[in-house]
Structures are given as structure tokens and as C-alpha cells.
Amino acid sequence: MHKLRTIEMQRLSVDEFHEANKLPLIVVLDDVRSLHNVGSVFRSSDAFRVEAVYLCGITATPPHPEIHKTALGGEDSVAWRYFETATEAVAELQKEGVFVYSIEQVEGSTKLQNLQLDTDRRYAVVFGNEVKGVHQEVVDLADGCLEIPQFGTKHSLNVSVTAGIVIWEVAKQFLERLKL
């Protein structure tokens, strides 16, 4: 096997990314405090051509060297907006007809492996603070909650790891339709 060099992968330029079809998914970060986590989410969002990232509350915004350290330019390719609170972001998304999931462990959550998306809809996924998770008022506003089953001794994953897993699951369901 030959390990591919970057030039052989035929990646999009930032301008081509802006013009390309996007995954109809908006990632919402609710008070994510680590700039490295923010950067990692931008990088995953770039990898799967996410429509946008909404940064809320204490979540830092680009440009910032600590975000860039893990985003590696993803903060330049992926559209983003800032909101004072995640509740404001969710309210606006729902007004636009976007179906919003909070990623949180709650009674009645949908296990990620059971997620069935309508590929004619747009979606948003809300990821919470590294310690406190998604704010309860955001969970209350959401149209549903998704949970990643876990089988070890810990009850949570790092927010950027969680984002990568969830974004990939959404992307898998849209791959055929979007021809990414």
C-alpha cells in the first residue's frame, strides 16, 4: 500500500469548499471552554463539509491561535456565527425549520445507532460544556436528544470526540444523496 500525499488526495481549496454542497447540519457549541476542543470541532466540520458551526456563550471565536492549532484552517473554510446563548441559536434554527438535537444523556434519548434521519431536512446538533454538558434549558428546547452508548467506567466522552462521532453518523446517512 502507498500512503497518499496531500497533493494526491485532491482536497478542495477554501474557495471550492465555500461553493461546494454541504452536509445539511449545523453544529452548535454551548459554552465549550477549551479552544482546542473548538478547533477540533472546526476540523471535523471541515472534514465532513458541515454547513456551519454556531459558537455560543463562553465559546471562543476565530481568529485565535489556540483554535487554529487544532482546526488547521477549518475555521477559515467552515462558516460560523456567534450567539450570546445557545437558546438564541436553537430558537433561530427552529424558526428556520431546522430539527435540533441536543447531544446529552437524558431519559428517552435516542441511541445514536438508532438514529434515522430524513435526508430532505436540515439538522442541528448541540454539544455542551466539558463539565456541565448542554444547558437544561437548551435540552428543553431541543426537538430530541441523542446519546452515544458507552460501556466503560466513564459516563462521558471529550466534546470534540463526541462531535466527530455524531457528525460522522449524520454524514453517513447523507452520503448517497449528497454525493460528497
UniProtKB/TrEMBL annotation:
GO cellular component: cytosol
Family matches, as Pfam families: SpoU_methylase (PF00588)
Membrane spanning residue stretches: none
Keywords assigned by UniProt, alphabetized: Methyltransferase, Transferase
Keyword Transferase: yes
GO biological process, one term: RNA processing
Domain annotation tRNA/rRNA methyltransferase SpoU type: ranges: 25-167
Single Gene Ontology MF annotation: RNA binding
Protein name, as recorded: TrmH family RNA methyltransferase
Source organism of this protein record: Leyella stercorea
